[in-house]
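FORM 7B: Structural annotation worksheet

SECTION A. Query
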Amino acid sequence: MRSSYYNKSRTDRSYNLLLMNLIDEQFTRTPFYGVSEMTAWLRAQGYQVNHKRVRWLMKLMGREPFYSRLRTSICGSEHKVYPYLLKGVRVDRPDKVWCSDITYIRLFHGFVYLLVWMDCSRRYILSWELSISLDKEFRLQALRGSLWLGEP
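SECTION B. Predicted structure
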């Protein structure tokens, strides 16, 4: 019968309500538990759940663990604030203004750094380089690649 395929059974709904009650009680005791810890705790109590169901139920209940997140973009008060030099400048033709950005990409073994040079008027990437360190040669190689394509 197709209705059983589309409609959730009452036992499934009641099981979800039971799990939500257990998650709520445990979350009150341990508000730092995330999906993995909560799944492991429920399994230790004898309930058959997977991390997808626990994630869905915690999201449905609005339960998010209290733990400190990475603060990668917060600068310290000792850093100097530089003025924005392009304020009032119209970028109306290609190669008038270039910009660059460096970001890191997390991998299993560490990080790699991505440096990109871009033409601001066309939003065209002139060159990019990947490196495992932020050494001078890595930055110069990316700059040479962009100068080969155009001149700011």
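SECTION C. Observations
Strands lie at 98-106, 111-119, 124-131. The chain has two domains: 3-61, 98-149.

SECTION D. Sign-off
Analyst initials: ____
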